[in-house]
């Protein structure tokens, strides 16, 4: 009962704040400027090409930014996050469970935090850091990360007992990628780095170097 009351109060606050909120259907934002927050409980959020929105939050459902679309921040719990060519997330992007895909020309002005979700970035710009607990991080092409990569420990209690959270992260840094700042692992993992990539200091994990387009255990990466 207390949880229901808290959720009701939260939704009421969101309504009063003037945000766009859908509870059980996808939220479609057409091209144009929408400075208000967008909140979806079940169904996800889709911004059309060149559309613009404020903060985007989705509980159960993915978030897609069409070509050239812009959002202030993106925060999802369960569902994929796709930023198509030239899309922008001005500040932080956070996804708990679901794959994050960044197409060429995408710009993220803050951090990308994936927790157990994976990240696939090609020719993208991440001004902040990448943080994950047990995700797979694949960086391709001319992708640039401004403030390092951090492989964090799971939170204590129930999270640490979950097999998904126990899974060690894997990072693949392909040819041409630049990572400014350190790569820091709090509990190990796997780190593959192309000899044609540029990275900063590495702490808590051993870098394995590879030649060619992809490491031996990921032959499909291009």
Strand content: 35-45%
What general form does the structure show?
globular
Order of helices and strands: HEEEEEEEEEEEEEEEEEEEEHHEEEEEE
Tally of DSSP helical segments: 3
Structural class: mainly beta
The rounded Rg comes to 18 Å
Q: Care to count the β-strands?
A: 26
Mean residue pLDDT: 86
Which ranges are low-confidence, i.e. pLDDT below 50, for 5 or more consecutive residues?
1-18
Reported for the largest beta sheet, the result is: 16 strands, parallel
Keywords: Signal
Signal peptide: 1-22
How would you explain this protein's 3D organization?
The chain has a 16-stranded parallel β-sheet that branches. Strands 2-5-7-9-12-15-18-21-24-26 form a 10-stranded parallel β-sheet, with no helix packed on it. The chain starts with a helix and ends in a 12-residue tail after the last strand. The protein has one domain (21-210). It is globular and about 45 Å long. The model is unreliable at 1-18 (pLDDT under 50). By secondary structure, the chain is mostly beta strands. It has helices at residues 2-16, 158-161, 163-166, and strands at 20-22, 27-29, 32-34, 38-42, 45-47, 51-60, 63-65, 70-78, 81-83, 88-89, 93-97, 100-102, 107-108, 112-115, 119-122, 125-126, 130-132, 136-140, 144-145, 149-151, 170-173, 178-179, 183-185, 190-194, 202-203, 207-210.
């Amino acid at each position: 009962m207390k949880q229901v009351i808290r959720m009701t109060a939260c939704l009421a606050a969101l309504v009063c704040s003037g945000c766009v909120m859908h509870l059980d259907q996808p939220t479609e934002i057409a091209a144009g400027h929408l400075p208000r927050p967008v909140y979806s409980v079940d169904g996800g959020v889709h911004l059309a090409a060149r559309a613009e929105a404020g903060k985007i939050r989705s509980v159960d459902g993915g978030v897609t930014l069409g070509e050239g679309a812009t959002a202030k921040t993106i925060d999802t719990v369960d569902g994929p996050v796709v930023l198509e060519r030239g899309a922008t997330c001005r500040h932080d992007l956070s996804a708990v469970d679901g794959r994050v895909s960044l197409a060429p020309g995408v710009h993220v002005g803050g951090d990308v935090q994936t927790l157990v979700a994976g990240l696939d970035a090609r020719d993208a710009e991440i001004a902040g850091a990448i943080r994950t607990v047990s995700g797979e991080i694949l960086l391709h092409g001319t992708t640039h990360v401004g403030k390092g990569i951090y492989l964090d420990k799971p939170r204590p209690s129930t999270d640490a007992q979950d097999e998904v959270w126990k899974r060690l992260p894997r990072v693949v840094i392909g040819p041409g990628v630049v990572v400014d700042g350190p790569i820091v692992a709090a509990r190990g993992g796997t780190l593959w780095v192309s000899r044609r990539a540029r990275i900063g200091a590495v702490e808590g994990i051993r870098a394995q170097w590879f030649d060619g387009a992809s490491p031996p255990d990921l032959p499909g990466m291009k």
